[in-house]
Amino acid sequence: MRPHRGTMILVLGILGLVLCVICGIIAWVMGNADLREMDAGRMDQTGRGLTQAGKICGMISVILNIVAVGIWLVLVVIIGLGAAAGAAGSP
């Protein structure tokens, strides 16, 4: 049986929340793969909680970044439309 990587996945998930979304994506993918291996009985089950927590942190970081980018795009469009309307209305 292979050893679990729960601690590493949890650290990557937390780094995804704090630093960059890439770490969150990696935690999400690795967490899915390791949980699949644990379910199949090929990986040590003792790190299941850490692996799940890291996967969830990675998922949250990715979702929060997608929402933040969406809000940013909406604000850019609103500011752009406002600037265009202001430029069109002034002589």
Order of helices and strands: HHH
Major beta-sheet overview = none
**Shape type:** rod-shaped
Question: Radius of gyration in whole Å, from Cα?
Answer: 20 Å
**Structure summary, number of beta strands:** 0
> Which stretches are poorly predicted, pLDDT < 50 over at least 5 residues?
none
The percent range for helix content is over 70%
Return the structural class. Answer: mainly alpha
- Strand coverage percent: under 5%
What's the number of helices? 3
The pLDDT mean sits at 95
Span from first to last CA?
76 Å
Overview of the structural elements:
The chain has 91 residues and is mainly alpha-helical. It has a domain of 59 residues. The chain has three helices and no strands. Helix 1 runs antiparallel to helix 2, helix 1 packs parallel to helix 3 and helix 2 runs antiparallel to helix 3. It is rod-shaped.
Task: Tell me the layout of helices and strands.
Layout: H1 6-18, H2 21-40, H3 48-89
Helix pairs in contact: 1-2, 1-3, 2-3
